[in-house]
Amino acid sequence: MFRKAFERGVSAMARNTPRTREPRRRAHDAAVSGGGVPGPRGQAGATPLAGEQASRGQHSSAAPEPQPETKLFRGHETTFPCMMKKSLQGPDPTYQKVVSGYKLFQSDEPFHCELNGGVLPELEVAYETWGRLNESRSNAVIIHTGLSANSHARSHEENPSPGWWEKFIGPGCAIDTNHFFVICANNIGGCYGSSGPSSKNPLTDEPYATTFPIVTVADMVNSQFMLLDHLGIHKLHAAVGPSLGGMISLMAGALYPDRVGRVVSISACAQSHPASIAMRYLQRRCIMQDPNWNNGYYYHGKYPGQGMKMAREIATTTYRSGPEWEIRFSRKKLSGNVSLCPTFEIESYIDYQGAQFMSKYDPNSLLYISKAMDLFDISDGYSSLVEGLQRVRCPIMVMGVQSDILFPVWQQRELAKLLHQAGNEAVTYFELNSIFGHDTFLLDLNGVGTAIKGFLETEVKENGNGGKKENKKHHFL
What we know:
Strand order of the largest sheet: 1-4-8-5-11-12-13-14-15
Number of strands: 15
GO molecular function: homoserine O-acetyltransferase activity; serine O-acetyltransferase activity
Shape: globular
Radius of gyration: 36 Å
Number of helices: 15
CATH class of the largest domain: Alpha Beta
InterPro entries: AB_hydrolase_1, AB_hydrolase_fold, HAT_MetX-like
Organism: Branchiostoma lanceolatum (Common lancelet)
Family: Belongs to the AB hydrolase superfamily. MetX family.
Region (Disordered): 1-72
CATH architecture of the largest domain: 3-Layer(aba) Sandwich
């Protein structure tokens, strides 16, 4: 009985509920769902709701559902021409072994490397020469190369193509072949004729690949002095080198102090520092992460071209400088619509540098030579850099470039200062304000070339700076 009385009460309450609240509720619901904006106190705004109009005329009619707004999407075309270049260029690239018209020194004796007990069953050193050796055999100048350069520093009859230091070597040039017998050798571990990972192991008749021993700057020096012995040259007039070559020339003065008359070290250092090591590490990772690298055994398979290309692109950003790129590229854009592919000219330049280099140098050689640069430390085996540099007793010119990113100029200033602290009173420091960064040694004939010529041709005392000339770019310590 109680339940029936309760149901009758609820029914009566429903009959007495005001009907005017329904439109307000629907108006609120419609506003929340996007159909309109309610006015003050819940009243409809300027735009009446369809449901509200229906409730005013016929309360029994159902309100239509509000129509959603039309949404628009216009995205980016998902074709990437910059990623399709490989398929448009034909077959996969292969390593193009360079033959530069070099001569070849061969030793059948085992060559013992500095680290890990590594031994090569035989040694080959590729080299090229210009000028004539005098009767006393005292006018020889050896040029040590950078990481990826070869022995072809200048053109000659066997190879008339321009060399990487074409304008710096020759009659009347910075390294004057009227006065000097000039030698340029390929580094061991490289791929331009000297023993390296792409060379055949005579014991297996297969490329060494990554079984090739780890090599150091000291190994490079020792192999080249074996070449000098072969040529009958006991003492060099000078050892000259940029970048890695500057490390080698410095080490030559340290390991063979009685056989090096003077040293020119350009854009190098006393030891490799973390920033440059990090950049070379990234280059090696690019190569080693390429599936085609195959732990270095790619000589009979697919070439790790994409890894090599990316490695060179990273390297290019360290070889040149911001000031040059501001002038040369600024924010100039390529033609066409903006996309995720290169938009700016600088991007296209970096892409080009990687593409044109990737098949000209053996990826394994890049791994080995860059590692040798990382390992370089003139103080190895000594208590300090100063003690390690005490071995360099000959006159030495240290050259740096203010815009160099890879080997910042403070490293050359440090080297010159340390040499002076080590007791060498024949230290010449030469600093250039060039916009070309680390590659200044390739491009600045007036600055770099003039300094080299003056240093090589000036009579200097073994323990002093005799014959020095004042120059606003020179600093004598």
